[in-house]
Amino acid sequence: MTRRILTLMLALGLGTPTLAHHGWSGYDSSTPLTLTGVIKRSGYEHPHGFIELETPGKTWRVVLAPPSRMSNRGLPASALTPGTPATVEGYPHRSDPQEMRAERITVGGKTTELR
Description:
The chain has 115 residues and is mostly beta strands. The chain contains 2 helices and 6 strands, in the order H-E-E-E-H-E-E-E.
């Protein structure tokens, strides 16, 4: 019986990193936020890309879109290199004061919608 349950869980993808994928309810959409700073670090990875954005007095972890969406909308990984100025618009995380979810990002004068 245990083997059947384990096989079913694996077939459904349970127990894989996809379970760690978060929902958007953790972000406060009633508090729009616009940040401008410099990219300190970036990740063009699944399930979502990210940047660490250094703003005056604080470094934010900014959750971006999945890499395939960013690529399809013309935002390659090379646009998110450290040292690049960027502006992000989105919503702060409800319990993590260092994190926000980006709705759009402007890099090199180009704005990309992420949602």
